[in-house]
């Protein structure tokens, strides 16, 4: 074997079975879902993480954990039918106001959406506290500014939101009719003369987060 051939072997991709093991190790060690580019950055030159993920997903089918796609990232998650094993006897109940739930639903279904557009859909103005609460939960984030007068900022849902609800993308959300039937998109008419300002935390009853 020539020196050139010896050198070329250093840049050969590992066998696919070994690539699967590497991707598996990366995902198990990661603190958050990993995108394809983030996985590829950790693998040897010439590796094909997308193919490794396909094989790895098949290998975990029917196991205690599933390999799932969350937005444009991948992560291992407990199999849905075994989720009860992870529940704690003592749980802290966190609640969102109806205003926050409606705002979150509107962002999810209409993203990217501006605050003015949220207010137009809901029929009442959105308090700063409602937006701040959803930002602190990291369920919504700031998007690009609209190229319109004032260049208003837009809002979109985050990967954390998708992860919490077990969604690959916002396209997997239930239908708008279902949300309206559940009272989560109760479009109330704006009061005559002006749009009513909602008091943070006082707009309707408090509702449990979707757990």
Summed up:
By secondary structure, the chain is α+β, with helices and mostly antiparallel strands. It has helices spanning 3-9, 16-29, 36-40, 49-59, 98-110, 115-122, 128-136, 159-164, 176-181; strands at 34-35, 65-70, 73-78, 95-97, 113-114, 140-145, 153-157, 206-208.
Task: Give a written overview of the molecule.
This protein is of the alpha+beta class and 211 residues long. The protein has helices at residues 3-9, 16-29, 36-40, 49-59, 98-110, 115-122, 128-136, 159-164, 176-181, and strands at residues 34-35, 65-70, 73-78, 95-97, 113-114, 140-145, 153-157, 206-208. The chain folds into two domains: 13-86, Winged helix-like DNA-binding domain superfamily/Winged helix DNA-binding domain (Arc Repressor Mutant, subunit A), CATH 1.10.10.10; 95-208, Arc Repressor Mutant, subunit A. A hairpin with a 2-residue loop joins β2 and β3. α2 (16-29) crosses α4.
């Amino acid at each position: 074997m020539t020196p050139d051939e010896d050198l070329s072997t250093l840049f050969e991709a590992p066998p696919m079975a070994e690539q699967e093991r590497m991707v598996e190790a990366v995902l198990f060690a990661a603190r958050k879902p990993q995108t394809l580019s983030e996985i590829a950055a950790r693998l040897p030159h010439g590796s094909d993480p997308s193919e490794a993920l396909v094989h790895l997903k098949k290998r975990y089918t029917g196991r205690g954990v599933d390999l799932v796609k969350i937005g444009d990232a991948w992560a291992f998650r407990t199999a849905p039918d075994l989720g009860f094993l992870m529940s704690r006897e003592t749980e802290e109940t966190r609640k969102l106001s109806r205003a926050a739930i409606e705002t979150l639903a509107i962002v999810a279904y209409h993203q990217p959406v501006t605050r003015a557009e949220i207010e137009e859909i809901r029929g009442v103005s959105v308090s700063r506290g409602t937006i701040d609460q959803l930002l602190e939960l990291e369920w919504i984030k700031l998007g690009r500014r609209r190229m319109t007068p004032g260049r208003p900022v837009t809002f979109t849902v985050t990967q954390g939101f998708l992860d919490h609800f077990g969604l690959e993308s916002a396209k997997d959300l239930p239908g708008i009719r279902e949300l309206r039937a559940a009272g989560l998109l109760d479009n109330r008419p704006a009061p005559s003369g002006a749009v009513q300002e909602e008091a943070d935390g006082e707009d309707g009853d408090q509702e449990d987060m979707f757990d």
